[in-house]
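Today's session is about reading a structure prediction critically. Students often jump straight to the picture, but the first step is always the sequence itself: look for stretches that repeat, for charged clusters, for runs of hydrophobic residues. Only then move on to the predicted structure, which in these notes is written as discrete structure tokens rather than atom positions. Here is the chain we will use throughout the hour.
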Amino acid sequence: MIYFPHPEQTTTEGILAVGGDLSVERLRLAYQWGIFPWYNPEDPILWWNPDPRFVIYPEKVKVARSLRPYFNQQKFRVTYDQAFANVISHCQEVKRNGQSSTWITDEMKAAYIELHLQGICHSVEVWNGDDLVGGLYGVALGKIFSGESMFSLESNASKFGFVSLARKLQEWDFWVIDCQQPNPYLESLGGESISRKKYMDIIRKNLFEKNREGDWGDKSVDLFC
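Below is the predicted structure for this chain, in token form.
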């Protein structure tokens, strides 16, 4: 049987459990309860449920003045679930300030590709012509989208994709985008911290919501239990 400890057993750092695997069943259960894996390649799998939690409400996403011309001129084109493997590969390879290596291991990459094939992990692609210049991916269960990682090869490309996703999620009546941990980039997009208690209240309510599974780029996609 796959299970996790009660969220109140989380350490002060936000770690709830250590070990296990990245099977579809375990990952699905984890995200249903607001738990996510994050660990260094040389470490065992660490499962997190931090307090406070960093989130963005889709209707509150901020569009910086410098970004508005990109939308007015439709500088980029956005698609969904059309190049998931490419998006996660770019997220794995992109160099980030203050990090000597990526936290997206090959094992994790394979696990999220499998989640994508199961219809609950989705990608956002940002194109300049035929070139993939930005994107992000995350897990969608019920009315919560849990963002995992993003990349940008051109200025503002990932922000363009994120804002486009937030607007789409608002159309679909999603309640919240889980950003997990705060950073200045997400703060600039409207991120805010809420208590674990408040987030777990959202999680419990979300257990009764249907999932929007399947290919988000397919106009025929609908809700499934």
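Discussion point for the tutorial: The chain has two domains: 7-48, 53-206.
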